[in-house]
Design a protein that fits this description.
single chain, 8-stranded mixed sheet, alpha/beta, 13 helices, Rossmann fold, 10 strands, 48% helix
């Protein structure tokens, strides 16, 4: 074949390909013309595909207006996510108790000393030092040591098992199993005479894990069969709002939030309570921005949030989230928050962080309010209602 023959064949191939492209384009144009106007996007994935948003469900229910719940609606043709089933609250502490036992530095040291028998003065000093290092606090430590020494004189120190029994009884007395640790989630009647869900405000310093804790408490309540609404009142961090929305989506819990970053947190909290009442929810959990306890204006803001929420119905609980690894530094935090918003319960996170179990006694003694939840891990269900007897047994089982 000559060069002209090759050129002729190449030209025919190009003409054929152009014809095929034109035919396909004509078919697509004809199909788009049959679609409703809002769906006639020139992009393959529909409107927004050019920005990488194809197949993404809307963040809020299109019909929900302000405060629509996260995960309340999904885009047409997009299947709803499979909801997770949270672990039952009754089994959580047993699992966390085993984890606490494995990390039992406090129990290991105490039992090692007591097992020596015939305790000398230096042994008693070592016991006292161990308790202080475990963040038990000076007052509770002195009290425990006095009782322990008195009983040791009666029983004799040559029987380690007897002294260990006394230690368990004294620790249990300090942790105080008689404190009411139940979360107050009964419906209340507001000033308007209507029945409202129990509202719970969650507060704490930066980095304590408040948003995660709110999500985990929601899972506990869902596992118990309660209808929950979450309020994203940490309006200064878009990441916190998105994080709380994700927690809600995983278990089908609506999240009330503002589309405006830096919006008034009190208004978001109020809207959450209003939405909870409208939905017939059992509990409204409101997350707040982390704040340093030495910033007076930020602490005043918490008081405002609580007052505004109370316009619909009384706030049943104010839960203070404390990082257990902060030890005695957390005591000042607890004092200031309690003065600002009248804390009713403590949530201790990261309790498996070495020998800091004494913080349970210290914070309860300082505030006069109970530890209601403890967290011992980063898993979604690694938060459990606190059990005093199980806690003491766990730290002594090491």
């Amino acid at each position: 074949m000559t060069g002209q023959d090759y050129a002729l064949i190449a030209g025919l191939v190009v003409i054929l390909l152009l014809g095929i492209v034109a035919l396909v384009a004509g078919v697509r144009k004809s199909r788009r013309a049959q679609l409703p106007p809002e769906q006639r996007s020139p992009f393959p994935g529909g409107a927004g595909a050019e920005t990488g948003e194809r197949d993404q469900p809307p963040l809020t229910d299109p019909a929900g207006g302000a405060g629509a719940g996260a995960g309340a609606g999904t885009g047409a043709g997009v299947s709803a996510p499979t909801l997770e089933r949270p672990e039952a609250a009754g089994t959580r502490f047993q699992r966390l108790k085993a984890r606490l036992s494995r990390s039992g530095a406090l129990g290991n040291r105490l039992l090692a000393i007591l097992s020596r028998g015939d305790l000398r003065e230096e042994d008693w000093e070592e016991i006292e030092e161990t308790l202080l290092m475990a963040d038990l606090g000076l007052g509770p430590t002195t009290e425990l040591m006095d009782h322990l020494r008195t009983q040791a004189k009666v029983l004799g120190t040559s029987d380690p098992a007897a002294i260990q029994g006394v230690l368990r009884a004294e620790l249990l007395r300090l942790v105080d199993p008689s404190m009411d640790r139940a979360l107050k989630i009964e419906h209340v009647v507001g000033d308007d005479g209507e029945k409202h869900p129990a509202s719970i405000l969650v507060v704490g310093v930066n980095g304590a894990g408040k948003t995660t804790t709110v999500g985990k408490i929601a899972r506990v309540l869902v596992a118990e069969g309660h209808d929950v609404v979450l309020g994203a009142a940490d309006t200064f961090r878009a990441a916190a709002v998105q994080q709380l929305s994700t927690w809600g989506e995983r278990v089908g819990v609506p999240v009330v939030k503002s589309d405006k970053e830096g919006a008034d947190p009190a208004s978001v909290a109020f809207e959450a309570v209003r939405q909870g009442a409208a939905d017939g929810a059992d509990v409204v959990l409101v997350d707040t921005a982390g704040r340093l306890q030495n910033k007076a204006h930020l602490m005043d803001e918490l008081g405002k949030i609580k007052r505004v929420m109370s316009r619909k119905a009384p706030v049943r609980e104010v839960l203070l989230v404390l990082d257990a690894t902060t030890g005695q530094n957390g005591m000042r935090q607890a004092q200031v928050f309690s003065e600002a918003v009248d804390v009713t319960g403590i949530v201790l996170t990261k309790l498996d962080g070495s020998a800091k179990g004494g913080i349970v006694v210290a914070v309860q003694r300082e505030l006069g309010v109970p530890v209601k939840f403890v967290g011992l891990g980063e898993g979604a269900d690694d938060l459990a209602p606190f059990d005093a007897e199980g806690f003491v047994d766990a730290i002594l089982a090491g």
